[in-house]
Amino acid sequence: MHTTRIRQLLGAAAAAALTVGGVLAAAPAANAAGVGGASFWVDGTQYRTVGTPTDFSGTGAPAGSFQPIYAFPEGTQTNVATAAPGDPGYRGGRWVVTEVLLPNGYPAALASGDLDGDGVLDSDEELWAAADAGDLAVGGVLRYFECPVIPLPRNGG
């Protein structure tokens, strides 16, 4: 009788140990999944973010406490933000994501806004140049959130 009880306890302990081990082994992978690749441009420099589950929509926080990120349609290019850590006016990683519309298509926006000729709209100055030409429009707010940002090395790593 005691043998059966001991086996049950040992079996439960082994299962618990395997579960904890599996969770610990998966933790680095889960944490790594939070760090994204290139997420947005600021003045010609690409930044990545660390994904967080925050959502400040409907909290009543002042609109001026968020930094704009202009979200381009999927498949066109990486988003554009107006400031990054160290820039005047940077708001500490609090973001308002605003939709970018391309009424004449992405090639037209690129033709009218790519002021430095590098093949991408990589600053808010270039974004507004395309908007002034009528080839880009700023739509509605998609989301308010917070996440830290990290500059990508120049080699894209």
From TrEMBL:
Keyword Signal belongs to the record: yes
Name of the molecule in the record: EF-hand domain-containing protein
This protein's UniProt keywords: Signal
Signal peptide residue numbers: 1-32
Organism of origin: Agromyces binzhouensis
